[in-house]
UniProtKB/TrEMBL annotation:
Residues 153-233 form the Beta-ketoacyl-[acyl-carrier-protein] synthase III N-terminal domain. CDD domains: KAS_III. Keywords: Acyltransferase, Transferase. The keyword Disulfide bond does not apply. It comes from Qipengyuania atrilutea. One of its GO terms (molecular function) is 3-oxoacyl-[acyl-carrier-protein] synthase activity. It holds the Pfam family ACP_syn_III_C. GO terms for biological process: fatty acid biosynthetic process; secondary metabolite biosynthetic process. This is Beta-ketoacyl-ACP synthase III. Residues 287-373 form the Beta-ketoacyl-[acyl-carrier-protein] synthase III C-terminal domain.
């Protein structure tokens, strides 16, 4: 590799929806839904033909996940016990679509922070866990809205979409096929969360992030060198969503929860923690980095307990909030955007030469590591 094709992160951007739902609001609405459901099905429950639904609890949610609130694109229908799903007017073909709109907002911040003229951007990757439609690609719409002359495409690797996008962008730069690539992750997770499922109704939140990956030679003075990237996938059914173009029934009916997010949370926890910890340590060593010397870990934001265990195994001691910051409390799990939000909000204070890790993990299973060092 020569000095001319070294990938760096020039800047990041974040779009946060204005609406937020606290655990109290969420549990209040869920429990009203449970009461209504149980009252309507009282005879069947009494006769032993149906099971009564159990209420949710704020104490459980915070203890099990670390989540206290989440942002959403729309709040009222999600909290309406008769709806329990987001609702919005379908946009016309001549209007900017919702994922593109929030992706563009995050991208603009990254471009502005880097002082990058859109004429110098070569490609847009829209990397997210769900796409609003199959085609034309969201990335191409974002590219057009930003006025970029180049190419774009969508990629979906569930919660690891953003880190897989960063490696893909970095590889374009390493290969000399592009100098400036935007990796945009609009995650409207409220659309694939089953708000009626007690086991998971508290998990997700909506957001969009953008990462501008560029060749070092054109990057602004303040940037992060990408020291190395590593991706891994191992097939698992423990996080799954069967919605797709071959099954076009509405996903929101109570009868087909498999057309929304479903998971075996315990198994995910148990299987993913050792896989990711081992991947980080092995890759750090391959890059001649001491894992214990990593100044900060921007980990995937799914569960505070998972992050505690992974950080402990990597650093060799219990990580402080400074070493492994969380955004779970206010954002919840934002799928692939989580580790990028953590990096965006908690990297400004690091010093030149500090080394850190952006790391994602989730459905697939999939995991991605991006080792970075602050250049200036
Ligand atoms: N309110 C109150 N109690 C609840 C509840 C809720 N909303 N949801 C589940 N419970 C109960 C369960 O019924 C169970 O009761 P029991 O012990 O009497 O059977 C108990 O709480 C424990 O449930 P469990 O599902 O085992 O909880 P958990 O401690 O594993 O936490 C997760 C659940 C989802 C927070 C956790 O497993 C997790 O985060 N896993 C990893 C998820 C992940 O990273 N996914 C990736 C997605 S991208």
């Amino acid at each position: 590799m020569t000095m001319t094709n070294r990938p760096v992160i020039s800047a990041t951007g974040l779009f946060t929806p204005e609406h937020s739902i606290s655990n109290e609001e969420l549990v209040g609405s869920f429990n009203r839904y449970v009461e209504l459901h149980n009252a309507r099905n009282a005879d069947a429950i009494e006769a032993g033909e149906a099971e009564a639904l159990q209420p949710s609890s704020t104490e459980f949610i915070e203890k099990a996940s670390g989540i206290k609130a989440r942002h959403v694109m729309v709040k009222e229908p999600v909290l309406d016990p008769e709806i329990m799903a987001p609702r919005w007017d379908e946009r016309g073909d001549d209007e900017l679509s919702m994922m593109a709109e929030i992706g563009v907002a995050a991208a603009r911040e990254a471009l502005e922070k880097a002082g990058r003229d859109v004429r110098d951007v070569d490609a847009v990757l829209c990397a997210a866990s769900n796409m609003e439609r199959p085609y034309p690609a969201m990335a191409v719409e974002i590219q057009q809205a930003l006025g970029i002359d180049g190419f774009g495409f969508d990629m979906n690797v569930a919660c690891s979409s953003a880190t897989f996008g960063i490696q893909t962008a970095a590889d374009y730069i390493r290969a000399g096929n592009a100098k400036s690539v935007l990796v945009v992750s609009p995650e409207i997770t409220s659309g694939h969360l089953n708000w009626r499922d007690r086991d998971s109704h508290f998990i997700f939140g909506d957001v969009a992030t953008a990462v501008l990956v560029e060749e070092a030679a054109i990057a602004p003075a303040e940037h992060w060198d990408i020291l190395g990237t590593k991706l891994k996938t191992v097939f698992s059914n423990n996080i799954r969503n069967n919605f797709g173009f071959l099954n076009r029934a509405s996903p929101e009916g109570e009868g087909q929860p498999d057309k929304l997010f479903v998971q075996e949370g315990r198994k995910v926890f148990k299987e993913v923690v050792p896989m990711v910890a081992e991947m980080i340590v092995t890759e750090a060593e391959r890059l001649s980095l001491d894992p214990a010397g990593l100044r900060r870990l921007w980990l995937h934001q799914a569960n505070a307990g998972m992050n505690r265990l992974i950080a402990q195994r990597v650093l060799g001691h219990e990580a402080s909030p400074d070493e492994s910051p969380t955004v779970l409390d206010t954002y919840g799990n934002t799928s692939s955007a989580g580790s990028i939000i953590a990096f965006h909000l908690h990297s400004g204070d690091l010093e030149q030469g500090d080394t850190g890790l952006i790391c994602s993990f989730g459905a697939g299973y999939s995991a991605g590591c991006v080792f970075v060092r602050k250049a200036a």
